[in-house]
Amino acid sequence: MSQPYRREKLGSEIVRVTAEILGREMRDPRLGFVSITKAEVSADMRYAKIFVSVYGEEKRKKLSMAALRHATGFVQKELGRRIRMRSFPEVSFVLDESIDKAFKISKIIDEVAAERRAREGGKEEE
């Protein structure tokens, strides 16, 4: 079993290098605006989940995830080459919806605040 700080350090390095690979070397036209949000490495350091956020509508998200799944082998090989380890974790890409959810919640809060201001403004005039 590995130490948690070692897994966290590897996770942050995976995020940095994966972002570099996707930004500079991926040439797949299906890949939209993708940002790497985090990487989680399993306790035995055999698996790593790379969480990605895709900007755009649902169709763009599906196309980008298909491109990432298709490029998993390439990304795995490049990560293993750039991050020296005896055996590199097997990577998989996971769509991270947290940014979209936060945006939707923020929008709802703004709408409720606007309604509240409108009601309070109407009471003052009475």
Characterize the structure shown.
The structure is a single chain. Helix 1 (4-24) crosses helix 3. The chain is of the alpha+beta class. It has four helices and three strands; from the N terminus they run H-E-E-H-H-E-H. It has a three-stranded mixed β-sheet, sandwiched between helices. A hairpin with a 5-residue loop joins strand 1 (34-41) and strand 2. It folds into two domains: 4-95, K homology (KH) domain (GMP Synthetase, Chain A, domain 3); 98-126.
The chain-level mean pLDDT equals: 89
Radius of gyration: 20 Å
Name given to the CATH homologous superfamily of the largest domain: K homology (KH) domain
CATH architecture term of the largest domain? 2-Layer Sandwich
The biggest sheet amounts to: 3 strands, mixed
Range of strand content: 15-25%
Helix/strand-derived category reads alpha+beta
Low-confidence stretches: none
How much helicity do the residues have?
55-70%
Oligomer: single chain
Helix count, DSSP H or I runs of 4 or more residues: 4
CATH T-level fold name of the largest domain:
GMP Synthetase, Chain A, domain 3
Quick recap:
The chain is an alpha+beta fold.
What distinguishing features does this structure have?
single chain; alpha+beta; 58% helix; 3-stranded mixed beta sheet; 4 helices; GMP Synthetase, Chain A, domain 3; 2 domains; elongated; 126 residues
